[in-house]
Model the fold of this input.
Amino acid sequence: MLGAAVLAGLIAGAITSAFHFVLAEPVIERAIEQEKETKMAQGANSEAPIVSRTVQRRGLVIGLLIYGACWGGLFGVLYLVIESRRQLWDPRIRGWLLAVVIGWAVAWFPFLKYPATWASLCCPRLALQSRSSFTGEVPWEVHAPS
Amino acid sequence: MILYAVYAVALYLAMPANPDPVRMPGDLVWTFRAISLAGLVVFWLALGTSFQWLARARA
Done:
């Protein structure tokens, strides 16, 4: 069962990578262009990125696969705990329901209070984190700037 | 359920506000945020659905 959960996490990570590739990447490019235009208008030179966009794109996929595998493992453990109390949830929707509950608790609800911020826009020193914090792939506690 | 809703609202109000200044046009930032939230929803729904399918296939 744990193997199935980790595999499901990897599948979810791959699907989410594709989602961000198609939808988020063009918006990030627009934001970068906007930032460059703003800097040029202010007479400042635009700085070379610390991490190239190619590496960032690879990081998107690799990071989400690791994220998916880790969450898949934790999901599997919780599923086994719930399964041991068989009467708790309908087995036909147990996995799906557990994903919704965990997703709400660790991702959706925190996001409502602390929506994704492209860290480099406010703090250039955090440019390395811009990719992950923008897409909300890292728990919000980790990337909150000091 | 009602108790949890009260707890969630209280937690939401008790947590400090986001301190990050945002210096980008609002429409761009809100597009970012909408896609980010949708990505999180896609991830967890994909995990639950694929797990359900894999677990059923193995049973």
About this structure: The interface with chain A takes residues 8, 12, 15, 18-25, 28-29, 31-33, 35-52, 54-55, 58 of chain B (CB under 8 Å). Chain B has a mean pLDDT of 87.
